[in-house]
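During the second year of the project, the team shifted from modelling isolated chains to modelling whole assemblies. The rationale, set out in the original proposal, was that interfaces cannot be judged from single-chain predictions alone. As a representative example for this report, we include one of the complexes processed in the last quarter. Its constituent sequences, exactly as entered into the pipeline, are reproduced here:
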Amino acid sequence: MNRYRPRTLALELAMIAAALFMAFPVYVLVNLAVRPPSDTSSPLSPTSSPTLDNFTQAWQKGGLGGALGNSVLVTVCSVVVVLTVSSLAAYPLARVATNWSRRAYLTFLLGLVLPFQLASLPLYQTLRDLDLLGTPWALVLFYSGLQVPFTVFLYVGFLRALPRDFEDAAMIDGCTPLQGFRYVVLPMLKPVTVTVLVLNAVAIWNDFFTPLLYLSGSDRQTLPVAISGFVGQYVTDWNLIFAALVISILPVLLVYFLLQRSIINGFAGGLRG
Amino acid sequence: MTVTPHKQLPDVDRPPGAEPAPRGRRERTTPPWWFALPAMLLFAFVVLVPSVRGVYYAFTDWDGLSPDFSFVGLDNFSEMFRDEDARQAVWHTLLIAVSITVVQNAVGLLLALGVNSAIKSRNVLRVFLFAPAVITPIVTAYLWRNLLGPDGAVNSLLGAVGLKGLQQDWLGDPDLALWSVVGVIVWQFAGYSMVIFLAGLQSVPKEVHEAASMDGAGPVRRFWSVTRPLLAPALTINLMLSIIGGIKLFDQVFALTGGGPGHATDTISTLIYKDAFTLGEFGYSIALAVVLTIIVAVVSTGQYLALSRNERASS
Amino acid sequence: MKADNTRPTLTHRGTFPEGGIMKTRTLPVLIAAATSVAVLAACSGGTNAGSDSPGGGGGGSQTLTLASQDQGSIEDVVKAFEKANPGVKVKYTVSGADQYQPQIRTQLASGTAPDVMSVWPGNGNPAATYVLAKPGYLRDLSDQPWVNKLPASVKSLTEYDGKSYTALFGLNGIGAVYNQEALTKAGLTPPDTWTQLLDFCKAAKAKGTPAFALGNQDNWVTQLVLYSLVATTVYGDDPDFDKQMQAGQATFAKSPWTTALDKYLTMEKTGCFQKNPLGTSYEASQTLAATGKTLGIVQGNWVIALLKEKNPKGTFTLKALPATDDPAKTLIPAAAGAGYAVNAKAKNPELALKFVNFVMSPEGMNTFVKKQGSLPTLSDTGLAADPSLAELTKFIGSDRTVPFMDQLWPNPKVQATMLSGLQEIFSGQSTPGKLLDEMDAEYKSGN
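Output from the structure prediction step:
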């Protein structure tokens, strides 16, 4: 398995072919984004006169700068809140074997099942009453609650597989439960935290319909909403649209490339416990 | 280094705290219940309470606009049985969810086995193959809508490699549109499944493989008797995520086909949207959402129970 | 190759406490850093949002809130309005119709709607005048000076229960938009009769450039050819068809709607359209017509501006689509596009009225119609008619137009049924008879 044999070479080639196949749409995306509108040749052939004009135009016309800022703000704040409250909640849920703990855990799991359409309008009206509509805080509050079930689910599963000896030792040494959590449990949760962080960040960054509703009537849009409005407005100009799409993908891909090792390891760690 | 291959999955049916087995006679400490309070409050405020309030509309004839509406009991639910569109949508939803679950995980597993081998490009490939999963779904939908057009890149590519006969009207042909949607989802999320499987594969200790190899077991046999049982937890997570995601699927269908042509790709979620906002039948749409909840709950619980039994059996 | 170096290194739980805390210090630090940056950014943003939010009430605030679906043209009108009213700030949002309609309904139902909003004429659409005025969300504009200057056919579309609610500024027509260069190249001239139309299609197809581009993937496009044919076949002989429908004396299934639908399918069979209309989007259909891959496109006049964007050198003209062999009987579907209405609970009603009246002033109206490529609803704006719309202008002037059919339907379901039904007919999943029966059923279900 560890030696490089002819069969491994064949596998290598097959895998590269698969990756190229997967990357094909992205190639078309970039190829169309860098060609001038006058170039109407096949989307397959690389353009003869590449240009970055589409990007500058898309950036200005789409107001993508502001949207990018809003997306970053909403994503960072929500992820911080979700991770904090969920890891804290997972600790007793994984460690206490009483009825309330079991029921509370099942209640959280119910959240995985509920479709967002049910809560959407009543929550809209609550946020209206709190005067949060049209502000990013409406979204931060929304995602902070919405992502709790999924996050608790992963944290509890991970924690249950961990031995509790260290916590017990810490308690005997006189730690308060909060200190025990902070200095003993939290460090042990690190692998799964990376996983949970990435999954939450991607989900929040990419969400479309909630920001569409909760930020409508304000000029503070998130990136997917700005992109969708842009697509509607410049529907004739695919070069421009594709440039906007590339801009919207870039930050996420960049973060992913930078973090990919700990992300994949985090998945592994998160799964293994 | 001790290896704890699995059992880290949350087990609803196992009393929490029953594990790990107590070692020695140390004093048990229990974290206080109020640790769960902030999360519970947020969750209740954002999801639980609004959902319960939302369910109320399922029993009304509200149009989503007027100040007044009346209570109609179970009318919306009985209407559903007469509504051909709703029946079709339920069928499409299940069809999409099941096909995505099967294909995405099959592809994901093959990719995971591929990049878990000795090939040189494995680290690069891990990145490339996972990349589509982080792209905004609405963006991938716009992209594919263009690629799958009659003169789009997919047909051009088929033409260029001499497969003109395979050129199709991918999103316009009602028999094909649903499968095109499934294809796009699989393209996007196969890498996601791959990463989770990869994590599972890496928990298979190398020594076990080497021992099996020395015993003369071939790769297929090694996979079946050594790797497969240890993949069970990864499989559980993958299947749960893809089936729930598949049933709730909305953004991609909405942006790719809008449920069309005709109703050929309408799912419960796209129907909820149309009924609520373009047809002014808000009450009915919430009744559909209630049905969606029930379907997700039944399917995921059933799947979960089956998988955890299987997991226990294979370990 | 021995150890797989990507194997996770974080499995050494047993090594705590030596490495554990040290190792994980970075994460909280990162989180803390990220949080403080975010909070900083948020605070500056937060104040911003606070000061913008209306509802201060005191001191006659000079901010108008506006929600529009006129992408690409509202921007100029707002600029002109702000210029004409120094000190006034318009806070507006623009979105496409399919995003706009759910948004405005939710906002109206929750009391968060802006002062002025886009509203469609007549009925039959989720944000149409009739639909929004009925529950009392719109302010009565009957006393505004422009109301009685509107042509009767347009005025009726601003009304619910005898009162006017919507400032309709632009007229649109549906017809065959021809690419002149492509016509010349093919050596063909636009047809005036149904028989000529079919011959035209055959000749065009033989030359390898089909007559019309059809983007039926976007389901609203499916109705345009049908509306053009219905205008002449249904309303040519029976101008009061809608009144009979409303009185329950007529049905779609037993009217010349069957003839029109039949002709639509005859056009498809004759090869009037390019291949795979169901896989072709609105945008793709424009490309076909703009670049001469088809000789034209059956669309609204708004498409001309879009075609010119794709092919700045092209010449495009709108002609009526014939449906019978008597050219004198041909009618064009033409009606007002979406206009603006005032929220009954507007926070700044005076400014809202001012804006609506600006839209109906020659300056506002001309800015809109020039950008959108439509015709003004009021005749005295002094705008020189666009030559590519000469035929439409002529038809409107001689009263040979019919409103868009859905604007007089009792609920949005009739149109929704028609749109998906047409897609189903094109894909062989449904039949004309079945579609018209379904439309009749929805029509009778009222509102």
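Chain B touches chain A through 114 residues (CB under 8 Å). The radius of gyration of chain B is 24 Å.
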